[in-house]
Amino acid sequence: MNVLAICAHPDDAEIWCGGTLAKYAMRGDKVTIAIATNGEVGSATHTKEEIADIRKKETFAAAQVIGAEVIWMGYPDEFLFDSENTRLTFIEAMRSSHSDVVLTHWPDDLYNPDHTITGRIANDVAIMTTVPNIKTASPPLDKIPIVYFMESVAGLGFQPEEYVDITETFELKREMLAQHKSQIGDWLQDQYGSNAMEMIEVTSRFRGIQCGVRYAEGFIRAKAYPRNIVGSLLP
């Protein structure tokens, strides 16, 4: 199966679905991580160009931990908008990765507008990926990808409908996140008082308690005609 995580910023995939992506990869599925923005505001000491380059390198290093591929969209951090160009870029990401499953932000995650827009666009364009008259570099998909929304930041307002047991891949999730050295150190702590490593421990443990395992990640599947399914495509 081909799995695509479309996330707003470098480090989002690792924080919110890293354990699930690792689990897909361990069973032999092809995993691709698409990052919508370049993370250019994520530093108080580096210039926009410097931190964007650092975060791109960190993204590739994190993906390498599980053998995932990366699609770098490069839109400006904090200024991602729904437009024809953006939609076509998202469609091309799904087509070029031959996506069967797409993991993305919950559109009601109000932490950051980039999260909200990314989740909304990813869900909106899924149905367009099979349409021949919508042209991108890659040919249309044979079937519409199934979209799953991942955890909101701190789990606020989010009640999972499906869980993935990530107990066996939690250390891989930590290793992936550890590659984002520019973020898990001073930036997130100084800006938001947030310890990202502690956050994934607490959130994953809490979701694990909810479903009876040590660590878990929670999801809600987008249920819409004609792309609803019986069962689950989560690992």
From TrEMBL:
InterPro entries: GlcNAc_PI_deacetylase-related (IPR003737), LmbE-like_dom_sf (IPR024078). Gene3D superfamilies: LmbE-like. One of its GO terms (molecular function) is hydrolase activity, acting on carbon-nitrogen (but not peptide) bonds, in linear amides. This is PIG-L family deacetylase.
